[in-house]
Amino acid sequence: NAGVTQTPKFQVLKTGQSMTLQCAQDMNHEYMSWYRQDPGMGLRLIHYSVGAGITDQGEVPNGYNVSRSTTEDFPLRLLSAAPSQTSVYFCASRLQGAYNEQFFGPGTRLTVL
Amino acid sequence: AQSVTQPDIHITVSEGASLELRCNYSYGATPYLFWYVQSPGQGLQLLLKYFSGDTLVQGIKGFEAEFKRSQSSFNLRKPSVHWSDAAEYFCAVAANNAGNMLTFGGGTRLMVKP
Predict the structure, then answer these.
(1) DSSP code at position A69
(2) Is B105 helix (H, G, I), strand (E, B) or coil?
(3) Cβ contacts of A46 on chain B, cutoff 8 Å
């Protein structure tokens, strides 16, 4: 089991560029989510999905898009990067049910210049 | 909407000393409560969780936490800290409905003195 994998580990973008952060899990988890981590603010939920074809907004969704075409993959797209999106991004997955443990990927450190 | 407060941004303890990290939550009903740990440059790992039953829960690495409904708290404790416990600790709360959203506190960074 690879668990939750994320690519790339590091990325530098210029303002206005677009990119996709990849996330995959091999645990057959229905629920997947994206968080951003900023100093002093903990992790904030961007988007989540409860299954293939179903996505919903979290606390800070603006500037980000997601899709869930398969159970395994949950990519996060930045359409037009802004310096405010400089952050560390974590993908997580778990079984259905809010009491279940979330398994986190290693993170992607994104810098927008 | 639920929220979580971790009042201590940084804590420094000596190796072998006891530890208590504070967590206060805001939620209308009984929540699901979690403590996660993040080592430098790593993702988060679950230490323990509470969702019902005994209010004192045991976790991995010798950690425990106590749910106190009257104080809306879920403090994390360890009787004797090891140097390898230096990390950032996050308390989190999830609503016990289909909302599926997990809300994190701002984190407490633990440093351990030799």
Answers:
(1) S
(2) coil
(3) none
Question: A101 CB near a chain B CB, below 8 Å?
Answer: yes
Q: Which of B47, B102, B108, B109 to mutate: most A Cβ within 10 Å? A: B102
Distances (CA, A) of B10 to A50, A61, B7, B23: 35, 29, 9, 13
Specify the DSSP class assigned to residue A50.
E
Give the CA distances from residue A53 to residues A31, A86, A88, B58, B99, in Å, rounded to whole numbers and listed in that order. Answer: 12, 28, 26, 37, 17
Tens digit of pLDDT for each residue in B24-82?
Answer: 998 877 789 999 999 988 889 999 999 888 899 999 999 999 999 999 999 999 999 99
Which of B58, B59, B65 lies closest to B45, judged by CA? B59
Q: Which of B44, B100, B103 sits opposite A31 (nearest CB)?
A: B100
Residue-wise pLDDT for A88-97, tens only, equals 999 999 998 8
Q: Taking CB atoms and an 8 Å cutoff, what residues of chain B touch A45?
A: 101-103
**Alpha carbon separation from A72 to A27, A32, A40, A49, A109 (Å, rounded):** 8, 9, 31, 11, 22
- The residue in chain A having the minimum alpha-carbon distance to the alpha carbon of residue B41 is A106
Reported as a pLDDT band with limits 50, 70 and 90, residue A21 is very high
Report the distance separating Cα A88 and Cα B29, nearest Å: 32
- Spell out which residues of chain A touch residue B90, defining contact as CB-CB under 8 Å: 42-43
pLDDT at B102: 87
